[in-house]
Amino acid sequence: MREHDGYAPHGQRVAAHCEACGFKRSISISELKSGVAPCLNCAEATDPDAVHIVYLIHFPRLRAYKVGLTSTEVRNDRIASHTAHGGRPIEQHEVPNREAARTVEDAVLRAVRDYPSGCTERDFPQGGYTETWSDDAPGIDIGQVIAELARDEAPGFDRLRKLRAYFENDPPTIEELVAFRHVETEEVDGAAIHHVGLSEPLEQVYRKIQARRKAVSADRGELA
């Protein structure tokens, strides 16, 4: 909801607030049309167990890099917000959950803590200046950081092992897995080849099947 009286150019940021949570920010019509999340506060209210994205973005004018995280839902995409403020996306990688994304972000910021960017809140009206560092710092490979954390089963990356242990004695049934079936078809030498796989990462499939089993058990308990 605008807090600005009268007209304003599409590209001019004006004072506004979220009708849902009251969060205040400055934003323009052009930014909203480019896909920027209307409310950054509400954008954080996503499923912490869902797949998240960790991204690296460069701000040439500020001579700074930024690491950040966002959900995979378009409406919660912070990358568009930073791009609208002069950022140039460098990398983005999916990780299994929000905890894993935080683990990656923390690891990157520890690696560059000796190279402060000097950015302030004024430089980042879209939020996120505390996760920046100077572009004089040695290069950071987000993909490599994720691979190392996954190998070490760092917080957030250890959930698949725990889920596998849960299903070790009672594996998912065909009936449970069919809901996550994904089929792709390609033609090879005139023959149709069907590739059958999962529609979501294995951790998400296990997590949802586990949740459904617990819900069924709870319902049976109530009926009993």
Care to describe what's here?
Helix content is 33%, strand content 23%. The protein has helices at 29-33, 40-43, 78-84, 98-111, 142-151, 159-167, 174-177, 202-223, and strands at residues 14-17, 24-27, 52-59, 64-71, 88-95, 132-134, 181-188, 191-198. β7 (181-188) and β8 form a beta hairpin. α4 (98-111) packs across α5 (142-151) and α6 packs across α8. The chain starts with 13 loop residues before the first strand and ends with a helix. The mean pLDDT is 87.
SSE blueprint:
Elements (H helix, E strand, L loop, with lengths): L13 E4 L6 E4 L1 H5 L6 H4 L8 E8 L4 E8 L6 H7 L3 E8 L2 H14 L20 E3 L7 H10 L7 H9 L6 H4 L3 E8 L2 E8 L3 H22 L1
Antiparallel strand pairs: 1-2, 3-4, 3-5, 4-6, 7-8
Largest sheet: 4 strands, antiparallel
Q: Estimate what percentage of residues fall within beta strands.
A: 15-25%
E-strand count: 8
Look at the structure and give the mean pLDDT.
87
- How many individual helices? 8
Cα-atom radius of gyration? 22 Å
What assembly state would you assign to the polypeptide chains in this entry? single chain
Catalogue the unreliable spans: none
Shape: globular
Taking the alpha carbons of the first and last residues, their distance comes to 50 Å
